[in-house]
Amino acid sequence: QVQLVESGGDLVQPGGSLRLSCAASGAMSTVFAIGWFRQAPGKNREFVADTRWNGGRSDYSDSVKGRFAISRDNSDNTVTLQMNSLKPDDTAIYYCAARLNGRGTYDYWGQGTQVTVAS
Which of the residues 13, 14, 71, 108 could staple to 2 if both were Cys, CB 3.0 to 4.6 A apart? Predict the structure, then answer.
């Protein structure tokens, strides 16, 4: 099993920046990728970005490409989402999730952290 804890959510003005962190623990040798997802009020959860845990590609949704950057630190099992040029549409609860080797879905989720973009 993998445990995930997000932090860093806050209220920020449009155009501002925020950095989210995801602390992972547990069976990290079984992890294929760590991803960030978000869910705004009244909307479905959507993919934001993910990164392969053992190196390689990272992917982004079109809505955040060029503004958000995902990075990982395998030494302390953290994944960071740097969010720049924030817009009110970025307001949501942000979740990190783990996808295991051989699995096509994200099976482990954190509790989420609230990001609010408003003036």
Answer: 108
